[in-house]
């Protein structure tokens, strides 16, 4: 999957792009300040403006989900930012800044342009992803019965790659199982990577989870096939088995719902 791995840490492509863009913006302003010491331009307000507006835009666009679970709004570590809304926020902050001091117009516009260029180039520099379709494979469920993927089920499919030792996996699984229960027109399975049936059953028992849709992939075949950088990784497939979206890291309820909609 596209993203970046630094030692034990894995970052999704969206987070890498956002970081590179912000770093480029701040670096450009820092260089300008070095060249022109008559004023000290600060880019913090612009960065905060993007974050607040992008988050607000995402929440508003998925308000049906957040209205039912308002505490999820604060879970910003799960992602959930709308870039277009963020750009609008940046524009508002820049306008207010320029109105107060017209001399800031040129450096702020240049820094914004550099950041946009960096955001556009970065995706092409990240490692290419793995396969884009789901292979026909068989996995055992927690009752030792074999389950085919994708099988004959005509519904869109979501495959969550997880492990019991993975904290984000443990956090998101109860929510994902509830969404699976509430979304009968989509199929959600949880393919455990590299662990034994005993480990998985113990985890489900401690977490008081039924284990519907849990599969065992002890050889991590799916992780290798899709070149997943880390866990959790959530893969969305349409009814024809084509990969429509992939999320590296913890997924929010809104992102999961949006991902399911993207498969239709």
TrEMBL record:
Gene Ontology annotations for the cellular component aspect, listed alphabetically: plasma membrane
Transmembrane segments: 12-32, 44-63, 75-99, 106-126
InterPro entries named in the record: AhpC/TSA, Lgt, Thioredoxin-like_sf, Thioredoxin_CS, Thioredoxin_domain, Thioredoxin_ResA/DsbE_sf
Domain of life (superkingdom): Bacteria
SUPFAM superfamilies hit by this protein: Thioredoxin-like (SSF52833)
GO BP terms, alphabetized: lipoprotein biosynthetic process
Sequence ranges assigned to domain Thioredoxin in this UniProt record: 110-264
Keyword Transmembrane helix in record: yes
Keywords recorded for this protein, A-Z: Isomerase, Membrane, Redox-active center, Transmembrane, Transmembrane helix
Protein name: Thiol-disulfide isomerase or thioredoxin
Protein species of origin: Loktanella salsilacus
Lineage summary: Bacteria, Pseudomonadati, Pseudomonadota, Alphaproteobacteria, Rhodobacterales
């Amino acid at each position: 999957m596209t993203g970046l791995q630094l030692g034990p840490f894995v970052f999704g492509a969206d987070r890498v792009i956002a970081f590179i863009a912000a770093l480029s913006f701040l670096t450009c302003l820092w260089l300008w300040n070095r060249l022109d010491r008559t004023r000290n331009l600060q880019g913090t307000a612009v960065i905060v403006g993007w974050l607040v507006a992008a988050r607000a835009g995402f929440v508003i666009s998925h308000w049906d989900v957040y209205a039912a679970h308002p505490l999820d709004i604060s879970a910003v570590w799960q992602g959930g930012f709308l870039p277009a809304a963020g750009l609008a926020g940046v524009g508002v902050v820049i306008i207010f800044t320029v109105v107060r001091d017209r001399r800031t117009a040129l450096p702020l516009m240049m820094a914004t342009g550099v950041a946009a260029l960096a955001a556009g180039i970065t995706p092409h520099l990240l490692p290419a992803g793995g396969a884009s379709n789901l292979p026909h494979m068989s996995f055992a469920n927690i009752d030792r019965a074999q389950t085919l993927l994708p099988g004959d089920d005509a519904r869109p499919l979501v495959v969550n790659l997880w492990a019991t030792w993975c904290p984000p996996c443990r956090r998101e699984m109860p929510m994902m199982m509830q969404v699976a229960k509430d979304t009968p027109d989509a199929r959600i399975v949880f393919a455990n990577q590299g662990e034994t049936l005993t480990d998985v059953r113990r985890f489900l028992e401690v977490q008081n989870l039924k284990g519907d849709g849990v599969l065992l992939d002890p050889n991590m075949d799916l992780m290798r096939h899709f070149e997943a950088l880390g866990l959790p990784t959530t893969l969305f497939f349409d009814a024809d088995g084509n990969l429509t979206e992939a999320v590296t890291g913890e997924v929010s309820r809104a992102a999961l719902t949006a991902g399911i909609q993207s498969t239709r």
